[in-house]
User: Fold these one by one.
Assistant:
Number 1:
Amino acid sequence: MLFASRVSAAWLCIAPLAGLYAGEALASRANPYGFTNAAQSSVPYTATPFMAAVDCAAMNKTTPAGVVLSAQLIAVTATAPEHCRIRGTIPAEIGFDINLPTKWNGRLWMYGNGGFAGEDADSAKEAESRGAGLAKGFATVRTDTGHLASKEPLATFALNRLDKIVDHGYRAVHETITLAKALAGEYYSRSASYAYWDGCSTGGRQGMMSAYRYPQDFDGILAGAPTLRWSDVMMKGLSNQIALDAAPTLTVAKFGNVFKALLAKCDAKDGVKDGLISDPAACDFDPAKDLPRCTGAVNDDCFTDAEVASLNRLHKGPIVKGKEYFPQNWGVEHATTSIPWLAWPGGPSPNVLTLFGESYMKYMAFEAQDPNYDWKTFNFDTDPDRMGRINSILNPQPDLAAFKDRKGKILSYWGLADAALNVVMGTDFYQGVTTELGAQQTQSFYRMFLLPGVAHCSGGYGPSQVDGMTPLIEWVEGGKAPDRLAAKLVENGATKYDRAYCAYPKVTVHAGGDTENPANWRCEELDPQPTGGGCTTGNGADAGLPLLLLGAFARWRITRRGAKRDRA
Ligand SMILES: [Ca+2]
C-alpha cells in the first residue's frame, strides 16, 4: 500500500482531506453552488413535466450489449425525490450509476471525477452530487472511470492495463452517457432534450475531452479548472517537492506571511485594494526584496536564502530544457489555497501534488511502468519526451469545431489562486481554439472566466461561490450567452465579495463606487492576442515555439486605467 507506513493517526482525523487519498473528496460537480440560481433562471429547468413510463423493476435486465443492469426504486428522502437507481459495469470495469427521477425535467446531468477517479458511488460526496441533480429534476449520471480507488488507489490501476488508462482517459464517460441516454429514453418513453456535463479538475478535463472526442455527447459542458495537461501538472508536483525539500522550514505559517507581504505589494496593482490579486501578471513580487530576511535566528517572521530560492522555484514551476513554461501565480500562499496542494499538515505525503506525481510517474507517465520508480530520478530535460502516449490519451486538443457546429456550449472557469492547476493551461488552450476558429467564433460557444482569490475548483479567499450551471443552461436552451459570471463570497451571512467577472480575454475593471456591486465594474477588451505558433496542449517538452507563447501570456497585464499588453 502506497505510503501506508507514513499514514499518521493525525491524518486519519482530517476527514475532509482523507478522501483525497482515494480521490473521493475530489469527485463531484464543479462547485457546490451549482444550481443555486435556478429560481432566477430564464429557463425554468427545474419544472418536471415528464413521468416515468415503465416500472423501475423492469429496468433489471441485460442490455443488448450484454451489460447487466441492477435497478432499484429509491423512495423520496429529504435530499432527493423518488428515483430509479440503475447500476452496473460496462466492460472491462467501468462502474456507472444512473438515477432516473420519477418526475423528470427532460435533461441528463453527468458530473465528473477528481484526481485519479475511482470514487465509491456510495460516498457522501457522491450522494450530495446525486441529490443535487435529482432535486432539480435531472436524471443524474456518473462513472468511476473504470476502476475503484479503494482497490487500486491513485494511478495503480494503470499497471499493465492500457485499456484502463483509455477508459479513464475518455472512454468511460462516453460509454456511460451513451447508455444513460438509451435508458432514459426507455424509462420515460422519450429522448432527453439536453445532456449536460458538470465537473472540475479531472472533471473539467473530462468535459473538455468530451467536447473534443465525442462532440455529440453533451449539449452543454461546465468545465471548472480542467486538467488540460496532466503531465505538466505532475511534473510541477515533482518540481515543487524539490523546492520544498530544499527549504523544509517553509511552513504553512510562513506561507501565510508570504501572502501578507504579497498583498501589501500587489493588492492595489489591479486597481482596487480589496484583498484580491486580480491581475497576477502585474504582480512583480520578488521574495528576495519583498520579504523580511533572517539575520539571526530563523523564525516565521523572516526568510532565509534557501526559503527565498524555494519560493522562486515554486513560482517558476518545472523547467524543461532550460525553459520556464508553466508558471504558478503568486497568491496561492494563503492557507485556504495552499492546503493541501502545496502543504498538507499531517497528511500522508508532503502535499497532494507530490502524492499524485509520484504515483503518476510510476504507473501512467511512461510506457515502461515501474512500481519501484524513484521520482527523484526524473529528468526534466529528457523524460518529458517519453510521455507522448499518455499525453495523447489524457490531453484534450483545441480542435472543437465539431462541438461548435453541433451548437454545443462550454462554460469554463479557473481560480486565479489555484495551487493545483495552472491557469496558463486554460489561457493557452483557449488561445489554441481561437487560433483554429477565430476569436468571434470561439466566443460563440466557449467562454472562460478567471476568478481572483479562488482556490482549486472552489474555496479560497476570493469570490468562490459560483453557479455555472444556470448560465450554461440559459445559454444552451435560451441562447443567452454569458458575458459575465456571477461570483460571491458570503461568510456567516455577510457578503464579503459580490462580483461578476467578464469572459476572457476581456478583463473586469472597476468603474468607481461600491466594489461589491457588480454594476460598478465593466468589461474591457485586451489588445489582439499573440498568434502564430499553435498551442501547447501536449507536454511542455512536446512544444518548442508554443512554450514561448506561454511566456507571452504570462505577461498580459491589466492597468489601473483598463487593460494593455505589456511586452516588457
Ligand atoms: Ca486587488
Number 2:
Amino acid sequence: MTVRPANVAPSCAPPRIHYVCSKVGSGLIVGIAMDSKQYPVTHTEAEWRQLLSPEQFRIMRAHGTEPPGSCALNHEKRAGAFFCAGCGQKLFASAHKFDSGTGWPSFNDPVPGAVETATDRSLGMVRTEVHCSRCGSHLGHVFDDGPPPTHRRYCINGVAMNFQPE
Ligand SMILES: [Zn+2]
C-alpha cells in the first residue's frame, strides 16, 4: 500500500477551531483492510470499480480521505437527505448537518441504523471509523467533540454521499 501525500491545497478556509478529521490531513490512502462481514449489498472489487468513480473507490473501498473543502456537499444547506453513493441508503438528514469548519460535511447524528462503526488504529491514532451498514463502504469518522445535544461529530467524505433535496 502506498501512501501518497496530499497534493491538492484545501480550497476552504482552515479549520476555525480544533475540529480536525485527521492530523495528517487528507489525500492519503490509509490502507485499512475492509472487514470480512457480509453486508446486505456486496460487490466484487471489479464491480465496485465500475460503480464508483476512481475517487469514490479510493475513499469508500480503500479507506481514503478526500481533500478538505473539495466537495460541494460541504456547502449544501438545503433541506433534504444524504444517501450512500455505494448503495443508495439514506445516511443523514440535513437537519443534523452543521458547519464544523473542517472542510468535510459534518453531522450530529445519522439516520438510526444507517451507519456502523469500527476502531481505526491507522496512522498512529485511535479513531472511530464510520461505514454504511448496508454496503460496508467507508464514509468517514466520528468524534465526540461536536455541538450539543449529541456532542457527536460525524466527519464524512462528501464524495461518499449523494444529496437529494426535499
Ligand atoms: Zn452503502
Number 3:
Amino acid sequence: MKPFEYIAVHTIAEACDALAAHGAETRLLAGGTDLLIELRRGSKKAPRVVLDISGVAEMAGIAESGAHITLGPLTTHAELARSELLREFAPLLGEAAAAIGSPQIRARGTVGGNIMNAAACADTVPPLIALGATVALQSKAGCRELALADLFVKPYQTRANADELLTAVRFPKPGPGARSAFIKLGRRNALAISRLSVAAMLELGKDGRITEARIVPGAAFPTWQRVTEAERLLLGEMPGEPLFASAGRKVSEEMIKATGRRWSTEYKEPGYLRHHQWPAAHAHSPRQHEPARPPAGPPGPLGHQVRL
Ligand SMILES: Cc1cc2nc3c(=O)[nH]c(=O)nc-3n(C[C@H](O)[C@H](O)[C@H](O)COP(=O)(O)OP(=O)(O)OC[C@H]3O[C@@H](n4cnc5c(N)ncnc54)[C@H](O)[C@@H]3O)c2cc1C
C-alpha cells in the first residue's frame, strides 16, 4: 500500500472543507470494503489523502419525512436489510442489501460507497433507480440534487466533482398499489457479485392493471438504465407470467442491442427470461408486509438470489 495522509472528519462541513483543500488527491473512506482493496492493490489512482467520513453522524440512518424516505449514505447494508421502514415501503432495496457479500461486508459496507464506487455489479443501484431515487452532492460551494440514474458516466465513474461528497439518497414512497422485486444471479448463494440482476417496480390500478412499470437491470448495460421498451409492454395489462416473460425477452433484446453478443450473453439472455417470470408469482406489495419468498426452482438461503 502506498503511504497517504489520513484525515478523519465528524461533520459534513468539515468534510467539505477538507475536500475543498485537497479534493483531486483525496479518496473518501466510508466502510472501506471497496477502497481498502484498491489501496492494497496500489492502483495508479492511489490518493495522497484518505478522508475518513465514517464518523459523520449526520450522514447515517434511514428517515421518513412526509412523502419521502431519506437514506444517509453511511447506512450499512445490514441496516438496510433489517429496516422495518424499507420492508414497508421499499422491500426490493432491503432484499438487494441482504444479498450483498457476507455478514461482515454487510456490517461495514455502506449504500453511499456502493453507489459512489459505481461498479456495474453494485446491488443497491438498480432498486434505487427503480424507486426513482435522487442523490444530494454537497461541496463547500453548495448542494445539488440529481437523479441517481444521471449520476453515472460509466462503470467506476460518476458525475460527482472532486470536491463533492454524497450526503443523502432520497426516494418517494411508492403508492398503495406498488409491487416490487429484486432478483440477483450469482455464481453461488453468498459472497457472490451479481453476474446479472434486475429490479422491478409496478403500480397497479384499482382494476389490477399495470399503470406504471420500471425495470432496471444490473450488470447488463454499459450503465444503469430503465428499459422503457420492456416497460411499455406491461402498461395497461394484468400482471401474469407470460406478460413478464415477454418483458424479459425485450430486456434481453435491448441488452444485446446495447452490448452486442459476448461470451456472457449465453447465460444473460436466458437469465432475463427466467428472471421476469418470477415477479408475477412473487412480487409483493410494500404495504402488506409480506416476507420475501424464494422463487420457484432451487431455493437459495437468500430470497431472490439465484446461482448460475
Ligand atoms: C468480499 C466482498 C464481497 C462483496 N460483495 C458485494 C455484493 O454482493 N454486491 C455489491 O453490490 N457489492 C459487493 N461488494 C462491494 C462493497 O462491499 C460495496 O460496494 C460497498 O457498499 C462499498 O461501501 P463502503 O462503505 O465499503 O465504501 P468504501 O470502500 O469506503 O468507498 C467506496 C468508494 O466510494 C467512495 N465514497 C464512499 N462514500 C462516499 C460518499 N458519501 N460520497 C462520495 N464518495 C463516497 C469512496 O471514496 C470510494 O471511492 C463486496 C466487497 C467485498 C470485499
